[in-house]
């Protein structure tokens, strides 16, 4: 989580999914500057920690069935479902849980929690607002072993 924490405060250059750090996140997942980047941010953070996956610019791709978990812990990826889009349309990383709330670190958001924001923020979100959690660190079946 130190890698993600160090990115809090990164801001887009002009508010159009651009700037040096945003470009680095997008480059990692092989998409052009100007693209939405919440999933690119999550993928980049994992890469910096030495993990080859996830590596996708598409937030729904971060929640394959074999990675989904109900155990909420640091570095688990969370996904928010948008009914108007009929899909997961924003994701980020869980830093910690405080009762019914999550403290998260997420890219391409803002103070209001938008999915088209202007930077990397630490947010407070209700657990009830989350559709899926995915664990990309622990092996499949780890939930059953704990």
From TrEMBL:
Source organism, top-level taxon: Bacteria
Name used for this protein in its record: Peptidoglycan-binding protein
Lineage: Bacteria, Pseudomonadati, Bacteroidota, Sphingobacteriia, Sphingobacteriales
Organism for this UniProt entry: Pedobacter alluvionis
């Amino acid at each position: 989580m130190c890698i993600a924490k160090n990115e809090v405060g990164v801001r887009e250059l002009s508010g159009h999914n651009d700037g040096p750090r945003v470009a680095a996140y997008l480059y990692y997942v092989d998409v052009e500057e100007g693209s939405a980047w919440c999933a690119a941010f999550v993928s980049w953070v994992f890469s910096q920690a030495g993990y080859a996956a996830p590596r996708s610019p598409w937030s729904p791709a971060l929640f394959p069935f074999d990675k989904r978990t109900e155990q909420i812990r640091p570095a688990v990826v969370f996904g928010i479902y948008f009914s108007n889009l009929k899909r997961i349309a924003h994701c980020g990383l869980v830093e910690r849980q405080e009762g019914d709330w999550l403290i998260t670190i997420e890219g391409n958001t803002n103070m209001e929690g938008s999915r088209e924001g202007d930077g990397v923020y630490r947010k407070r979100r209700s657990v009830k607002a989350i559709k899926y959690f995915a664990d990309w660190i622990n092996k499949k079946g780890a939930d059953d072993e704990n």
